[in-house]
């Protein structure tokens, strides 16, 4: 018997592979459509858009409305055009009025203030941000015309006592630095209107001498380690805005109603289990934001829709980052996270102002993705 030879029609084999290729291309098309419609692609698009906006210094409130991010590229172009228009018009305006009285400095290549600054004692405003500067020099006492000290996101670890010599100082912003204390001499700046010490992470108290600041209307000491409302804050009789969120508060003082002019009170991300009934005596209070995770007792009148008070209870649900990091990296990432969280809340509160009513509670889920 001879050998058996199996002969295949080549057209059959070709048809088989063509069928497989068609099926594979069809699967690829469906997969591409699925990814295009999936939430993951949407999150990736929003993530990249937010990163681009942050890189270009665009405020989050511009592109985040009511908790939703507008990823329209035309919006980004419009924002950039408006920014360029403002930049082109500002020098003309400021050149006429105040450029000679304003000092601005930014960039991580700056580790100390320029020597020539000491001679410019006529300056009324300092705007210094995103530098590696650690020390504010004692010669700051020479700047008697100073109105605004805007020093956010630097590496400042100490404020000199001489800051108390600035009798005309109206605004002090030392947010997101490395301060562990505030000099009591700041209490001598009796014309101070705004004080922002948020995001220093290690700040635990304010000196009693700040009780002298009777003109203060705005205090932000969020994202620190306060275990109670500072006594000096309770004595700021004209205070209208108080943000003490993201601290270690477990209760509020019974005499919180001493702040008779208080209009906005931010308490979220603390460990409060109850709110004192004295809160009902804050007749001018129009915004109260708390974390509802631990809150078990509060005056029911605070939630009464018939009052002008907007009561917001945030149900926070953070996801812990399990990655191993050294101490410095954790501190810096925490500082960035707090800053981003603060920008989110600013946008959220701005949106609340435009609403006639607020939800009974808001769930805010934090998460991170590697894409």
Write a short abstract of this structure.
This protein is 28% helix and 13% strand. It has helices spanning 10-37, 39-55, 60-63, 73-97, 231-234, 327-353, and strands spanning 64-65, 68-69, 102-106, 125-129, 148-150, 171-173, 194-196, 218-220, 241-243, 264-266, 287-291, 310-317, 362-365. The model is unreliable at 83-97, 317-325 and 363-371 (pLDDT under 50).
Structural commentary:
With 371 residues, this protein is an alpha/beta fold. It folds into two domains: 10-76, no CATH class; 104-318, Leucine-rich repeat, LRR (right-handed beta-alpha superhelix) (Alpha-Beta Horseshoe), CATH 3.80.10.10. The protein has six helices and 13 strands. The chain has helices at residues 10-37, 39-55, 60-63, 73-97, 231-234, 327-353, and strands at residues 64-65, 68-69, 102-106, 125-129, 148-150, 171-173, 194-196, 218-220, 241-243, 264-266, 287-291, 310-317, 362-365. The strands form two sheets. The chain has an eleven-stranded parallel beta sheet with strand order 3-4-5-6-7-8-9-10-11-12-13, with no helix packed on it. It has a two-stranded antiparallel ribbon with strand order 1-2. Helix 5 links the parallel strand 8 (218-220) and strand 9 (241-243). The longest helix is centred in the N-terminal third of the chain and has 28 residues, at 10-37.
